[in-house]
Amino acid sequence: MPEQVSKIAIVGAGAVGATIAYAAMIRGVAKHLALYDVNRAKVDAEVLDLNHGLQFVPMATLEGSDDIGVCAGADVVVITAGAKQKPGQTRMELAGANVALCRSLVPQLMKVAPEALLLVVTNPVDVLTYVVQQLSGLPARRVLGSGTVLDSSRFRFLLARHLNVAVQNVHAFIAGEHGDSEIPLWSLASVGGLPLMQWSVPGRAQLLEQDRTRIFDDVRNAAYHVIRGKGATNYAIGLATAQILEAMLHNEQRVLPVSSRLEGYLDIRDVCMSVPSIVNRGGVEAALELSLSPPEREGLKRSADTIRQAIRTLGF
User: Fold this and answer.
1) Which CATH number goes with the domain that contains 237?
2) Domain housing 263
3) Whole-angstrom Cα distance, residue 315 to residue 311?
4) What residues sit in the active site (predicted)?
5) Lesser CB count within 10 Å: N end or C end of the chain?
6) Last residue of one domain, picked from the residues 145, 167, 187
């Protein structure tokens, strides 16, 4: 049997879209990558630059266009297009302009790639994941957002650095909104199988209450620091999105804190937000109902209320 050729279409060839293409190309996530952007000169330049590096990565075909038809036949469409977050601006403040963009973009995507899974990266990602699912008419499992995959990676990095262990041995999630109302799931965090709240290793740093507060503050404010310094976050979200794409296209059954529509999850309904979920070729198969502490459950509900309020304000 010939190998199935997977196609990823990326909408938006800005810093995030181009870096997702770069990360996916290096990791060999798909054999066919397509970039769509209304700025023809920009998309042509990005594709040319990427093609010049094909010698050094797994073989793939890359193309780009200002015609949305370039997305035709995609297995996954990644939506990165939208207004850029400015220094000091919250993700929620981007909502109006980016929802307006989705109103025109999503119907066009459904015409050219009706069988695709939709992966939303544009902020505010939870609001836009809900909006895209509504506008597309697709089943909830086929529309997901990058959610707190990046926030959880920041969380694990900071914990690993504090405890002086490899980040790959830290398992911890940020849940809820990809934004200011997100919460850390301290009760489920572990290091090498040891519950984080039981961490006590001779010669290694302890994790005190003030350390937990500082680490979470750094997670929640990380994007603001990066945007203030260089104008945009792109490398880590590029890698995070590439991992989500791998989980989808390679049918990995990977547990990731992606944003998806919740209906009855811990009494949370009619909202898209991030909780650890099984991701595979069909999209989001199931959100894992976790044994959270009472404060964590309340924090998730408050985060859901924040997102839902924004959704309602925008008329959805």
Assistant:
1) 3.90.110.10
2) 149-313
3) 7
4) 178 (proton acceptor)
5) N
6) 145
Tell me the CA distances in angstroms from 204 to 128, 161, 219, one per residue in order.
Answer: 42, 11, 22
The number of domains in the chain is 2
Q: Is 181 annotated as a binding residue?
A: no
The identity of residue 42, as a single letter, is K
Q: Is 154 annotated as a binding residue?
A: yes
Tell me whether residue 305 is annotated as binding.
no
pLDDT in tens, the chain (316 residues): 344 679 999 999 999 999 999 999 999 999 999 999 999 999 999 999 999 999 999 999 999 999 999 999 999 999 999 877 777 777 677 788 899 999 999 999 999 999 999 999 999 999 999 999 999 999 999 999 999 999 999 999 999 999 999 999 999 999 999 999 999 999 999 999 999 999 999 888 889 999 999 999 999 999 889 989 998 899 999 999 999 999 999 999 999 999 999 999 999 999 999 999 999 999 999 999 999 999 999 999 999 999 999 999 998 9
For 61, phi then psi, to 5°, come to: -110, 130
User: pTM higher than 0.90, yes or no?
Assistant: yes
Instruction: Please identify, among 98, 116, 145, the residue that sits at the C-terminal boundary of a domain.
Output: 145
Alpha-carbon dihedral sign for residues 139, 114, 137, 21: positive
Same domain, 44 and 92: yes
Q: Is 178 a catalytic residue?
A: yes
Q: Are residues 295 and 198 in the same domain?
A: yes
Considering 52, 178, 225, 250, which one is annotated as catalytic? Answer: 178
